[in-house]
Amino acid sequence: MTTPIGPEAQRPNPALEPLTPLVGEWRTTGTHPLVPGVTFHGRTSFAWHEGGAFLLMRSEIDEPEIPSGVAIIGSDDAAGTFTMIYFDERDVSRRYTVEVGDGEVSWHRDEAGFAQRMVFTIHADGTRLDAHGTMARDGGPWEDDLRLSYERVDA
Questions:
Q1: What pLDDT, in 10s, does the model give residues 16-59?
Q2: Residue 44: which of 78, 64, 67, 76 has the closest Cα?
Q3: Which of left, alpha, beta for 137 (phi over 0: left; psi -120 to 50: alpha)?
Q4: Are strands 104-110 and 114-122 parallel, antiparallel or unpaired?
Q5: With contact defined as beta carbons under 8 Å apart, do 117 and 3 qualify?
């Protein structure tokens, strides 16, 4: 029998507490301007990982045009920042900066060839999130991207 490694660090990270409103199971519906007239349906979960040291996101959309993915969010306490590492079924891997505001969580990446932003609005009652994505290619103008509504299913 082996001794567990690192159990002392498997505990709630107090810096991540502002992300608590995201934690749960969500039913998603959404649209994307590149697939007009189609409503996407899926599921997303946000769960504490390693006892709360990180926040784990899993998302799955039923339609093949939108990839299913997984991400982990952590913090840098010295810098006071959050970072998300994302990976999806296309073998796409990206790093995003996460920001938390009053009733809002967002993440963005500002790479020269392809920049993205996603802004989540948290409804006051905690049963709904609305997310609006934008993207810019090669330093061009920002365009609408994936738009999702999240309805809590674990309440």
A1: 999 999 999 999 999 999 889 999 999 999 999 999 999 999 99
A2: 67
A3: beta
A4: antiparallel
A5: no
Superfamily for the 10-152 domain = Calycin beta-barrel core domain (2.40.128.20)
80: left (phi over 0), alpha (psi -120 to 50) or beta: left
140 phi and psi angles, rounded to 5 deg: -75, -170
Q: The whole model's pTM is what? A: 0.92
- Cα dist. 64→44, 60, 131, 145 in Å? 16, 10, 20, 16
**Contacting residues for 111 by C-beta, under 8 A, at least 6 apart:** none
CA dihedral 59, 37, 143, 67 (to 10 degrees): 20
**pLDDT at 155 > cutoff 80:** no
Map out the domains of the chain as residue ranges: 10-152
Closest alpha carbon to 57 in 104, 33, 32, 24: 24
Per-position b or e across 98-113, b if 16+ CB within 10 A of its CB: bebeeeebbbbbeeee
What mean pLDDT do residues 95-118 have?
Answer: 95
